[in-house]
Amino acid sequence: MSRRTSIHCSAFANRATVAKSHAIATALLQLVVLEPTRADDVKPDECGLASVYSTMSEETASGEDTSAKNLTAAHRSLPFETMVLVENRENGRSAVVRINDRGPHVGGRIIDVSQTAAHELGFADLTKVCLKILSIPEDRPAGEN
């Protein structure tokens, strides 16, 4: 092998090492910047006051009868059948509810939950909550029914 060929191969090897180092540095940077989000870092979709549905059985806006036994809730704009994680900010308890009604109809509140959901959340009247939307039916964007 001539000296010129040897220098050319050596330069090529150095470029390959630099390129490999660049690729590794890029991957590490992406890992740091695009790190998977931890549950504690997920921001809620909405926070405010939650209240409890009355115990009377009546028809909901979706056409279902209310039932204190179901994990259901009323929200002003989320589509029916949306699944929402409700987290009680006062005691840390949570429940997953299904939106099947409209409300609350009292100012300052963001959600009404069934008796069973309120029991799981550990409150009886009003409490501070944060909502995290888990799923919205594909055929119903937020704000439509």
SSE order, as H and E? HEEEEEHE
The count of DSSP E runs of length 2 or more, i.e. the number of strands, is: 6
- How far apart are the first and last residues' alpha carbons, in Å? 77 Å
Sequence stretches where pLDDT stays below 50 over 5 or more residues: 31-41
Radius of gyration: 27 Å
| Helix count, DSSP H or I runs of 4 or more residues | 2
Tell me, what's the shape?
Answer: globular
Look at the helices and sheets and give the structural class.
alpha/beta
Note the beta-strand portion: 25-35%
User: Biggest sheet: strands side by side, in what order?
Assistant: 1-5-2-4-3-6
Helix content class: 25-40%
Integer average pLDDT: 77
Give a short account of the largest sheet: 6 strands, mixed, barrel
Fold topology:
Layout: H1 3-33, E1 46-52, E2 72-74, E3 83-88, E4 94-101, E5 109-113, H2 115-121, E6 126-135
Task: Provide structural commentary.
The chain has 145 residues and is an alpha/beta fold. 26% of the residues lie in helices and 27% in strands. The chain has two helices and six strands. The protein has a six-stranded mixed β-barrel. The radius of gyration is 27 Å and the shape is globular. 21% of the residues are buried.
Relevant terms:
145 residues, alpha/beta, six-stranded mixed beta barrel, 2 helices, 26% helix, 27% strand, globular
Short description:
With 145 residues, the protein is an alpha/beta fold. It contains two helices and six strands, in the order αβββββαβ.
